[in-house]
């Protein structure tokens, strides 16, 4: 995707009015394993994830969603030294995610998008909290799973997921996560492989979110964007061109966060719109 984008930027930046090679480097230089390379085009059948408290598409079993929080740490290794170097230079080292009714919180430490995004689906008050400036900047948000069918045709690779369960389990954050060999997942690159350890008994609300304003473009982290409808990914290992990126949960709470945690902190000021 990076190579294609550098040659013909408009192919991978069709949503943007500024289709430049510099933008391709910003958005795609880390490949799929950093932010899942949204809006690329391949040809596969589409698949919708379930909305809160609704039946899953193609599955009569109602999914009961859980509120709570999870923290992931990231690690890059492998023989592709350049890929490892890129990831470590630009990707977040840690993600903190919080889920409540109509609310989403995402905090990134280090990387291109260091800071916090807050989403309130009910009020449409969505902000990016910039630590450097101390400003809360308004930001737009899209939910990939709520796009209409016409829009989904531009990015069908985000709606595929196929995994084989194994009999192996790994204890993570005090829970037994089952190992899955993942054959297909959202925005998988050719030749990439993935192994996931999933806590099958609980599921956070679907949060395959894309945040964007004039200065930032932020996606939900890979374990959230992965494509599985049920279960919480507690560990995910993706090997893309011998760059191995691992997301591991270090904290997991299945208790709904306080609503105050989704509000703009007092040490941030709302940026005035021009």
Classify the beta-strand content into a percent band. 35-45%
Distance between the termini: 35 Å
Q: What pattern of helices and strands is seen along the backbone?
A: HHHHEHEEEEEEHEEEEEHEEE
Q: Supply the number of structural domains.
A: 1
Which fold does the CATH topology refer to? outer membrane lipoprotein receptor (LolB), chain A
So, CATH architecture?
Answer: Clam
Shape: globular
- Quaternary class: single chain
Report on the biggest sheet.
Answer: 12 strands, mixed
Number of helices: 7
| Average pLDDT for all residues | 81
CATH class: Mainly Beta
Give helix % range.
10-25%
Q: What's the total count of β strands?
A: 15
Give the strand order, joined by hyphens, for the main sheet. 8-9-10-13-14-1-2-3-4-5-6-15
Could you tell me the radius of gyration in angstroms? 18 Å
Protein model, in words:
There is one protein chain. By secondary structure, the chain is α+β, with helices and mostly antiparallel strands. It has a single domain, classed as outer membrane lipoprotein receptor (LolB), chain A, CATH 2.50.20. It is built from seven helices and 15 strands. The strands form two sheets. Strands 8-9-10-13-14-1-2-3-4-5-6-15 form a twelve-stranded mixed sheet. It is globular.
